Amino acid sequence: MTEYVHSEPPVRFERVDGHVALVILNRPRAHNAISGEMAALIDGMVKIVESDSTIRAAVFAAVGKSFCAGADLREVAAGRANDLRTADGGFAGFVFARRTKPWIAAVQGAAHGGGTEIALACDMIVAGEDASFGLTEAKRGLIAGAGGCYRIARALPPAIAIEIVTTAVPFGARRAYELGLVNRMAGTAEVSAEAVKLARTVAANCPLSVRESLGIARAALSLGEKELRALQDDAVERILAGPDVIEGATAFLEKRAPVWRS
Question: Which is nearest to 126 in space by CA: 53, 68, 176, 69?
Fold first, then answer.
């Protein structure tokens, strides 16, 4: 019996308004646990987002009651754990992938283990009231080796992060929001729509400005003041050399929407 919805593939790719892409996990009967096929598909979709200049932001969403249960343990038990990662993207073809555009996780239901690691690999998270997060690998004799152990420590206060990785106890969306892990809350049925709304807001801005700002903000987690100042100065130089600075100012004065060219 197929685990896919209406015989569709286990991951779907969609476009919204031309500038926003959606990568949608579509294996609800298995709680969207990542299989080797899914990892390969996601890897390819990330590369489409990265290479298509008309896409300015992306949403990572899911079908069903769970966002993602992490690795498909049936494949792990069968000795196919390596199939759940790709050379360029790591686990799920995503967590270590090169991504210069903003990604927003739309989390409904459980995002445990690798599901939380996928969410942490995104730049922003929109969560439903029923969402829950957890790095539960220690319960299975594993660690959150897809970036979870250090990304959770960068996102949250150290004592909270240590509790999460050592107790392996899931926590709810409201708690995640209070801790600053989640950007926005939404009703369960509105999670994807709210994430798309956020992505549209991002996509309306100058693409080059967004990419440069995102790169500096990401680097701020690991670089010092001197290195960050150098990155900033280089980014400002590229911005000022492009056509969109003049367009942005002109559009403001003319009280119209800008037409970005970067």
Answer: 176
pLDDT of 27-81, one tens digit each?
999 999 999 999 999 999 999 999 999 999 999 999 999 999 999 989 988 999 8
Q: How buried is 117 (Cβ within 10 angstroms: 0-12 exposed, 13-18 middle, 19+ buried)?
A: buried
CA-based torsion, 27, 32, 33, 34: positive or negative: positive
Q: In the structure encoding, which two tokens stand for residue 131, read together?
A: 């969402």
Catalytic residues, which ones?
A: 117, 137
At how many degrees (to 10) do helices 148-155 and 114-121 cross? Answer: 50
Maximum Cα interatomic distance, the chain, rounded to a whole number of Å:
63
Q: Which of 151, 41, 178 is nearest to 95 (CA)?
A: 151
Cβ contact 143:120 at 8 Å? no
Alpha carbons 189 and 126: distance in angstroms, whole number: 12
* pLDDT tens digit sequence for 238-262: 999 998 999 999 999 999 999 999 8
Q: What does the alpha-carbon distance between residue 114 and residue 138 come to, in Å, rounded to a whole number?
A: 12
- Architecture field, domain 5-203: Alpha-Beta Complex (3.90)
pLDDT band at 4 (very low <50, low <70, confident <90, very high): very low
Pairing of strands 103-107, 124-128: parallel
**At a CB cut-off of 8 Å and minimum separation 6, what does 72 contact?**
30, 33, 34, 35, 84
What's the rounded Cα separation, in Å, for the pair 186 and 124?
Answer: 14
Kind and range of the H or E element at 104?
Answer: strand 103-107
Beta-carbon contacts of 118 under 8 Å, excluding residues fewer than 6 positions away, are 60, 68, 91, 92, 94, 95, 105, 111, 146
Q: Which residues pair with 125 in a beta bridge?
A: 105
Indicate the domain borders of the chain: 5-203, 207-254
